[in-house]
Amino acid sequence: MSVLEQLVSAIKSEAIEVIDLTARLESSTPVIQLPEPFANTIPFSLQEVSRYDERGPAWYWNNISTGEHTGTHFDAPVHWVTGRDGADITGVPLTSLIAPAAVLDFSAEAAADPDFLLEPEHIRKWETEHGPLPAGGWLLYRTGWDARSGSQQEFLNASETGPHTPGVSVACARWLAQEAPVIGLGVETVGTDAGAAHSFDPPFPCHSALLGAGKFGLTQLQNLALLPPAGAVLVAGPLPIVGGSGSPARVLALVERAS
Ligand code: MN
Prior knowledge:
Layout: H1 3-12, E1 16-20, E2 45-53, E3 56-65, E4 73-75, E5 98-105, H2 107-112, E6 117-118, H3 120-130, E7 138-142, H4 152-156, E8 158-159, E9 162-163, E10 167-168, H5 170-178, E11 184-187, H6 205-212, E12 216-219, E13 232-238, E14 246-256
Parallel strand pairs: 5-7, 6-10, 7-11, 11-12
Antiparallel strand pairs: 1-14, 2-3, 4-12, 4-14, 5-13, 8-9, 13-14
């Protein structure tokens, strides 16, 4: 069999399991809420065009309204001012959309401290147990936050001091951008930066460093708990929106099961 025939056969026999890492898109899908004076994106919505009625007797279809950064979505380099001369979503190489993934589980730490920050030493310790981060692949950062995605309030976890959600430190963002072999960071939270990252120095270090280095972000991932620490392959499908800073994306993982 050819390699592709083997792949299709393994998916059919479930020797390779396909896992959906995507949040459902509906009007209640959480979206980031920036404080005044910043502008915000709209929530996802459907507007019915016809439904087997006088507007179209045999067909049902909708228009959709959404921000680019709604639900499970892909951040292109041009999303951030540091990456303004970089790729828009149409410029993301196709080979970046099918790539290996390392899954680092810090859900216990994030449960104990919603402001938990990933540090370079956490990643080095993980590498001593599971091997190096995959070159040309993704670091998927599990925090357990996907369990909160049914509620905007729980997902954003904001108090009078702002949102409190886990993220990465300034040093770790720089390390991921400049030294780590990965092409991007995937998270379960509303954005790749910590909730409190507005007050970091520099602010939003993950967006600033990674997108500035031509790397990518994936957010609001689900089901990372079903993935092994190493060996999964991530398949991401952002829409090729011309000039787009990002796009909602269907994100799948392929996981080989022991036979
Ligand atoms: Mn985004």
